[in-house]
Amino acid sequence: MSDVTAIELHSILDRQRATFLNAGPPALKQRRTDLRRLKAEILKRRTDILRALKTDFGQRSERESAIVELIPLVQSINYMIAHLGHWMKPQRRHVSAYFQCGRAWVVRQPVGVVGMIAPWNYPVSLALVPLATAVAAGNRAMLKPSEFTPATSAVIGEIVRAIFPPEQVAVVTGGGEVGAAFSALPFDHILFTGSTAVGKKVAEAAARNLTPVTLELGGKSPVVIAPGFAMRRVADRVAFGKLTNAGQTCIAPDYVLVHEDDRDAFAAVYQDAVKKLHPGGYAGSPDYTAILNTHHYERLSSLIDNAAAQGAQVIRLGTDSAPDHVLAPVLLLDVTPQMAVMQEEIFGPVLPVLTYRTLDEAIAFINARPRPLALYYFGDNRAERDRVLKNTVSGNVTINGTLMHYVQDDLPFGGVGDSGIGAYHGKEGFIALTHARGVYRQGRFNAATLLQPPFGKLADAIINLILR
Ligand code: NAD
Known about the structure:
single chain; alpha/beta; Aldehyde Dehydrogenase, Chain A, domain 1; Aldehyde Dehydrogenase, Chain A, domain 2; 2 domains; seven-stranded mixed beta sheet; six-stranded mixed beta sheet; 15 helices; binds nicotinamide-adenine-dinucleotide; Aldehyde dehydrogenase; Ald_DH_CS_GLU; NAD; Aldehyde_DH_NAD(P)
């Protein structure tokens, strides 16, 4: 990007910071009003948003977009409006006996200006939930949506400009170069959602300014199916999780680990479940989403070809439409960890199935790889479930289902290790974007005042009393 744009970025930040410092933290009433206006503007532009998403993806079901983008977004705004008053209340803290008559409390103060970078896969909710969180926390914000969803980014820009002055919230557009300049700005916090590779660059740039980061990244989220579990209870939910947005979901089940005796049963019911979701087929189905662009369509095709070349059984569960980059679901059996499909986040409707002989083997497989963003466990035996959950580390977990932890407003959402740093959503979002300022008000008298020079016998007595 040109120097001029970098200067523009700096000047937006400078103005936001100056007005933040000048105006002070907004009161609860103002924050609630801002959130209500944001929600109203989103609902007013609902049709524009859904059309823009369709334009950017080529094919994306308006109903699915409403379900997976707008409902979680609006619900999370409602949740923040309902709970913000409670979160903002100063919290009384304990004061030890020697400091009695004093008072201690914690105030969650807005950090100032938050920089937010969003990806293309859920370009509305992954831009506007962080924004709503920043507003709830009383901050100003600069948002950079993805360059790969220009129509949606334009609508997001219109929504923001309709309700916020640029010194409160600004949307800036651009690609990786703008992203790099953006993350080098001395923000008070950066919330980045995107790939692990770019997340590392953002963390590096932020470290130069000691800017704290929340990194919402990706990875390979496994599904572990307990031995002998009823496969019909698994297949629908795995298919739903894998095929929502055609698998272009950060928490999509990436691969399945199933007991070797159950593999064929799983493969059979999964194929039925996939057919049931789109009975008319996949190419041309208005309910199925296209792969974003040719680059990702070809990337996924080459993952399938690589698996086939290395001996995987490739079961295609529908017809593709290459010109529209619609990729029908694919089930891969006889997969080995060496195949390319097991080396990177799939981010598409391709499901590799791997087998294990003991649950410990499945646990070891997960632990030998980067920590996943989500873990899915299917099983009724509590001891087995506890063994898997206690002995693995991941972002969130859904038991006997997929994706649904994401829409629990009272759960933190975030990864760990390669899948992210920190969390947001609900209260954890408010905590992430505020500073916990501890305040102590000293009482007129307390024992500590007796521990000042000139020291004498009284000081000795108190020291000995404390150091018992
Ligand atoms: P990406 O990392 O390629 O891009 C994300 C954003 O970063 C875009 O706005 C892009 O312009 C910007 N960017 C690119 N280069 C940059 C740089 N050098 N410095 C700063 N910003 C830069 O990711 P993507 O392809 O848009 O999204 C897919 C990835 O995001 C997947 O890995 C997916 O798992 C992950 N993801 C994570 C979550 C989550 O909540 N954890 C949600 C959705 C997607």
